[in-house]
Structures are given as C-alpha cells and as structure tokens.
Design brief:
This protein is α+β, with helices and mostly antiparallel strands. It has two domains: about 5-100, no CATH class; about 155-305, no CATH class. It contains eleven helices and six strands. The strands form two sheets. A four-stranded antiparallel beta sheet has the order 2-1-3-4. Strands 5-6 form a two-stranded antiparallel ribbon. Strand 5 (about 300) and strand 6 form a beta hairpin. Helix 9 packs antiparallel against helix 11 (about 265-295). The longest helix is centred in the middle third of the chain and has 33 residues, at about 185-220.
C-alpha cells in the first residue's frame, strides 16, 4: 500500500479507535474511494484538497459533499497545492484533524472557556488602537457566542411532524363544509388516524428525552449561562411543534378527525390521545419560556453572570 495511504489508514485507526486494520483497508481499497484518495495524495489538477471520513454504526465511509449527519469526522487537508504529497514529508504536506459530533457546541465551549479568557487577560495589543480596538474585538467575540447559541438551539430544535406524501387535499378551502365532506372518506380518515398515531409516538419520545434531559440537568451545576442555553433549547423544541400545528395541513387533519369522531371510535381515541399530549407540549413550552424570561435579566453587558 502507498505509504501516504498508510498514513491515512493509521490516522483513521487511531482517531476512530477501530480495532482491525483490515476494516479500514477494505474501505481505502474500494475502487471509488481508492481513486479519490490517490487523486488527493498525488495532487491531481482539480482534485479535492480535503478528504473527510465518518464512522457510524461500525461503518467507515468517505464523506460526500452535501451529506448531513452528526457523527464524528476525521479530515485530511493537502497543504502543498496541486503537488504530490511527499513520502518523506507527509505530516508537513497533509494536515490532520477531527470534528466531533457537535462541532458548534465544541466551538462555543472552546471560544468561551479558552479564547475569551485569554483575550480578557491580554495586556499587550501590539499595533491595535489601544482599548478601543480591544473592546471591539471582545464585543465581536461575545456577539459570535450569541450567534453560536442561536445556531445550537436551531440545530437541536424539536421534531418535524410527519405529513402524507400527497397533500393535494390541502389545496381546498378550509371551511366547515370541506372538513365534513372529507370526513366522509373512510380511506382519508383512516390515513389521518394512522398519522396521528405517529405524531403521538414522535411527541412521546420527545417528552421522554426531554424529561431525561431535565433530570440530568438537575444533577449538574454548569452555571447560569449553561442553564439559560438549556431552557432556550427546550423552549425551541416544543415551540417548533406548536408552530407546525398552525400549518394548514395540520389544521385540516385535526379538523377532519373532529368531524369524524362522532361516527368513528378510532378517530375519537386518536384525538383524545393527541389532546393529552398537546396539553403536555403546551405546559412544557410555557415552563421553558418562563425560565428563559427569568434567566435573561441576569445578563450584564451581553454576558451571563
């Protein structure tokens, strides 16, 4: 095996803690992967300057642009332009790094716990324009932290309620006559009952995960800033569901089942189960929002104290 590919193999084995080297070799020798890797180390014109690998469910794979996921990743960056990586200077020609499964949170943590404290202790600012430039830099860093917080909240936000693939029925006007007419279709009602069942399962899992997270939170003491972020994330998760229920499709689905419940016991049971969970969602969202309001006034000059 090419010594430059061996370097990549060793890094993957170590970084992902893979026990058998043959598992990595099998991937690297796959025709498509091997072609991409060799183009990378040979510095072919137009070849990618970065290689990224992920490892999930005991499966190593080469990351393809546009794919999404939250698994740990290992990347290799070619530093020598479109020139072949030297066998003797591999570590100079190729940079190696790891991206953990929560890069935004990791960046936020490093910025807040490493770089900002160092910047605040800095006395010599070189050619900067005194305290004004120093304050501008620190203010910018605080704004970046706030942006990261909001991004983390959005990434971790709630669940997306399932909808049927065909929602052409939502193109109709949402009057009472339309809902009554739709409720006469047993096929449509049955499909909505099944859909509500999946909604219930989605929300039950979210409530369980949130309850577990709340218990874990009570066992920790990470400070007010972490507490605020926790409750903001929790508020966003449940508010996302509440917002989705205002969509026309969701309103029609619930409206049709309300019209059908008198004649259809299954529709009645489905709505009863959903109403119970809907109340829990509202209570959880209100609790989280109240805690966010309580914690927010504890900000001083943009920082949580």
């Amino acid at each position: 095996m090419d010594p430059r590919v061996v370097y990549i193999k060793v890094r993957l084995l170590s970084g992902f803690s893979i026990e058998r080297s043959t598992d990595v070799e099998k991937v690297l020798l796959d025709a498509d992967v091997h072609k991409t890797v060799m183009a990378f180390v040979d510095g072919h014109e137009g070849s990618a300057s970065t290689l990224t690998f992920t490892y999930t469910n005991n499966q190593l794979q080469l990351y393809k642009q546009g794919e999404s996921g939250n698994a740990k990743a290992i990347y290799f960056q070619r530093n020598c332009g479109f020139r072949a990586v030297s066998n003797k200077d591999i570590e100079l020609d190729v940079s190696y790094g790891e991206i953990l499964n929560s890069p935004l949170e990791d960046f936020d943590r490093v910025l807040g716990q490493v770089f900002l404290p160092l910047l605040k202790q800095q006395d010599d600012w070189g050619k900067c324009n005194g305290d004004a430039d120093a304050r501008a830099l620190l203010d910018s860093a605080q704004i970046l932290r706030k942006t990261l917080d909001e991004a983390i909240v959005n990434v971790n936000a709630g669940v997306r309620l399932e909808l049927p693939e065909d929602t052409s029925w939502a193109e109709q006007s949402m009057g009472n006559k339309t809902l009554v007419s739709m409720s006469q279709s047993s096929e449509l009602v049955d499909s909505f009952i099944e859909l509500i069942g999946r909604w219930c399962l989605q929300v039950e899992n979210l409530l369980k995960d949130s309850a577990d997270g709340l218990q874990d939170r009570r066992n920790k003491d990470d400070g007010p800033r972490s507490e605020l972020l926790f409750w903001r994330q929790r508020a966003q998760k449940f508010s996302t569901i509440i917002d989705q229920l205002q969509n026309k499709e969701c309103k029609i689905i619930l409206g049709v089942l309300r019209e059908a419940k008198a004649a259809d016991e299954a529709a009645h049971r489905a709505l009863k189960s959903w109403r119970s969970l809907d109340n829990e969602i509202t209570d959880a969202a209100n609790e989280a929002k109240d805690n966010v309001k309580y914690l927010n006034p504890r900000k001083v000059h943009g920082c949580i104290v």
